[in-house]
Design goal:
Blueprint (H helix, E strand, L loop, with lengths): L5 E6 L8 E11 L4 E9 L5 E7 L10 H11 L3 E6 L17 H17 L3 E11 L2 H9 L5 E7 L6 H15 L4 H20 L5 H12 L3 H5 L13 H10 L3 H7 L4 E6 L7 H11 L7 E6 L33 H11 L5
Parallel strand pairs: 4-5, 4-6, 6-7, 7-8, 8-9
Antiparallel strand pairs: 1-2, 2-3, 3-5
Helix pairs in contact: 2-3, 4-5, 5-6, 5-8, 9-10
Amino acid sequence: MVVVTTLTRAQHSEPDTLDVQFHEINVTYPAKDITIAATILFPLQGHPTAGIVMVHGSEGISRKSSHYRSTALKFVSKGISVLIADKRGIGETTGEYLEAPDLHKVSEDIAASVEYLASRKEIRSDKVGLLAFSQGGWIAPLAALKTPFVSFMIIASGSGVSPRDQVIYQRGQELLDDGFPEQEVRGISEYRTVLWSYLGAGTVQGYEAASSALATARSRAWFGKMKFNESLPDPTKLAKKEYDYFRHLDFDPAAAWRNVSCPTLALFGEKDRHVPVHASVEALTMAFEGKSGLLQVKVFPGAGHPLRLVKGEKEMLRSRGHSPDNYGEQPSDYWPTIFGWLHSRGIPQ
């Protein structure tokens, strides 16, 4: 571990972030196959404190992001320390960045961050949790199963279904924007589900099912418009990067969530068009069945994927150039929901 800088200052980073006095250090520590660079923000008083490790979404954004820092300062203002790391291959953390990574490997990075934070004298090791955004909603439960120090999780706009199903859902929203009828979108999504599962299997065992789906797809009017291949690729001959992409899409988060034993708060936006909200809530509810009181779900009316209120009738998709200008403020009950839930769990006390 290397402490790069230590400082105390007042910070005001976004309109909805309070001025906060805090102590900040930059550190590095090892994970399984990389070295992680991170920043920890501590309250000035009340040590040892509860701690939170942030889990990034898919974007290649460093720990210096104003969004991550302003969010961290909200928790610091309530007496909770926050660790923000550069994800692998970004900023000062070593390794390779992939937008669609091996989630199991990335979860090892988060587990290493949790154990590092829990080891510090400023932190109560029994009150360390995860705050995961978007893609981080798949990574967080895997990390929680790799270390005994995750005592709670907050999941913000994390998909409860597989990456494959989430991507197909988002692609379906794109097709609707392009004027495709809902019936055609369903047919295209069904074909993609079979095709992508076949390509991610790495063998030709699913050839008959994929071939049958292709024959059906060819008979549909949308097949030519979508410019799908007329024949099936051989999964055993895909380039490694392409094969890894389809293989990683097959990750099923339900198996991880079923084994999670810590309290979890799952937050969604009603107007989110990047994640299938209803299917995600249903999947999480089923995964926590029989674990009374461990899961709380909140869907914010009018909010989109960033959990800010959508301007207009529907959310603009990230793939179609959405920007912060497409959103208004966070729902008025966003932070009260989070801090009320934490307080009910004895955090930060």
